[in-house]
Amino acid sequence: DARVTQTPRDKVTEMGQEVTMRCQPILGHNTVFWYRQTMMQGLELLAYFRNRAPLDDSGMPKDRFSAEMPDATLATLKIQPSEPRDSAVYFCASGIDWDRDGYTFGSGTRLTVV
Amino acid sequence: DAKTTQPNSMESNEEEPVHLPCNHSTISGTDYIHWYRQLPSQGPEYVIHGLTSNVNNRMASLAIAEDRKSSTLILHRATLRDAAVYYCILSDQTGANNLFFGTGTRLTVIP
User: Fold this and answer.
1) What is the rounded CA–CA span in Å between residue A51 and residue A106?
2) Of the N and C termini of chain B, which has fewer Cβ atoms inside 10 Å?
């Protein structure tokens, strides 16, 4: 089965450091999402792209978060500077427009900011 | 975005059918009903989706009320591997096609 690949799987960093999370969507998928999951807030939509163009990033703290798709095979989510409240599991998902088979999620990046 | 309401938790015995309800009384005509599930320590997984008619696939069945204000995800024979949080989500085909997850239903399967 095709997979969405996220790296790193786990990341521990100190407050103030820059963090970059990467996502390789499934080949041919033109829609990419970034979600964040915490115990308190559940799954929150941060941003999403279609055909590499950002369509909605209203869920993202603009001052420290940025999301990009340098090419069709890579999506990145960057936090600079990181804060302890950013500790969460970050998921990437991909799909094809109005995907008949739903969106496929990666295994997530568990971020801990100390 | 239209809201959905699900029970916080449900239990089922192994090898018995499970009916997971979802209320969406403010659903619009262009909203699709999606179900995803999240197994422990994994990302969400697509289960099924539909618009008006009941839907079946290899994982589950989706029964949609005639007025579309509620739906039920049916697992025909629960296994221990079906223990997960199940999310019912509405998404507008004409809009952003994004998925806003609620709190879902935590399904416990009892051996």
Assistant:
1) 19
2) C
Q: Which amino acid is at A79?
A: I
What single-letter amino acid sits at A105? F
Band of pLDDT at residue A102, cut at 50, 70 and 90? confident
**A102 and B34: CB-CB below 8 Å?**
yes
φ, ψ dihedrals at B26, nearest 5°: -100, 20
Residue with tokens 């659903």: B27
DSSP lists the bridge partners of residue A35 as A45, A91
- The bridge status of strand A10-13 relative to strand A19-24 is unpaired
Closest CA to A36 of B101, B8, B47, B9: B101
CB–CB of B45 and A105 under 8 A?
yes
| Substitution target from B4, B31, B99, B100 for chain A, most A beta carbons within 10 A | B99
